[in-house]
Write a structure and sequence with these properties.
Elements (H helix, E strand, L loop, with lengths): L13 E5 L2 E8 L2 E8 L5 H4 L1 H4 L9 E7 L1 E6 L4 E5 L3 E4 L3 E6 L4 E8 L12
Antiparallel strand pairs: 1-2, 2-3, 3-9, 4-7, 4-9, 5-6, 5-8
């Protein structure tokens, strides 16, 4: 089994699209990397939640880096964070997030394959 992996997001293993949302997933051994492109006006509770249902905020864990644009995340515990291009981030379950401003957000998220059902994307 190979110990080195490389794959272009142009040839993603999985692509999921929702309103103002595009997620491209590449599978690299036991890890998945997701490229997210979120358009201005995107908000998780308005663009993703209606497609997956449920009564709570996002229940997935996210670890990644944002390379373009800005996003705000608000957690159920009352904490908030704004991340912008060049920032690494960790969001625990129980949050909502939205694009800040008029620039498209591009971000990359990393997860072990068996843990990365990518929360909302299970049914979307």
């Amino acid at each position: 089994m190979s110990k080195l992996f490389s794959k272009s997001f142009e040839n993603a293993d999985e692509i999921k699209s929702l309103e103002k949302t595009r997620a491209s997933v590449v599978k690299l051994g036991n890890a998945n990397v997701t490229k997210l492109v979120l358009e201005p006006g995107w908000k998780w509770s308005e663009c993703v939640k209606p497609a997956i249902g449920g009564e709570t905020n996002c229940q997935a864990t996210h670890v990644g880096v944002i390379v373009q644009g800005s996003m705000k995340c608000a957690h159920d515990d009352g904490s908030e964070a704004v991340i912008s291009a060049g920032d690494a981030y960790y969001f625990s379950p129980g949050h909502d997030g939205w694009v800040v401003g008029d620039e498209t957000v591009i971000m990359y998220e990393f997860a072990e394959a068996e843990e990365n059902e990518f929360g909302p994307w299970k049914t979307a």
